[in-house]
Amino acid sequence: MKGLWLLGGMLLGAVLTLIAGVAYWLHDSRPLRDQIHVRVENRTGQDVREVRVEYDQGQVLHRVLLQGSTVALAYPAGGDSSYRLIAVLEDGRQLTGGSSYIGRGAQTREVLEPERVVSSDP
How far apart, in whole angstroms, are the C-alpha atoms of residue 122 and residue 108? Predict the structure, then answer.
């Protein structure tokens, strides 16, 4: 009988530890889950001087994206969001793209092509 109490106490302790660990993980990872992640790939045939993601509360800027390179940009979002992507090519032309609606914590992919921006899920 004493062994059953000991086993029950150990099992209860393990379950409570697991619940506390999951609660801490969910609380600690919230800032990452609240961000929008935009991966930009340069397939333009030239370097990109500047890649800018504009959203309702600001912008994220990356300078010099080499031909064939990829950059991952993220911005905070308290809820559903939208963004506009602007890429300034080495020859001075601008390519624009973006998303008119994107959910909190989402990831998207933007491929810069010579004449346009192609948006897709990763």
Answer: 6
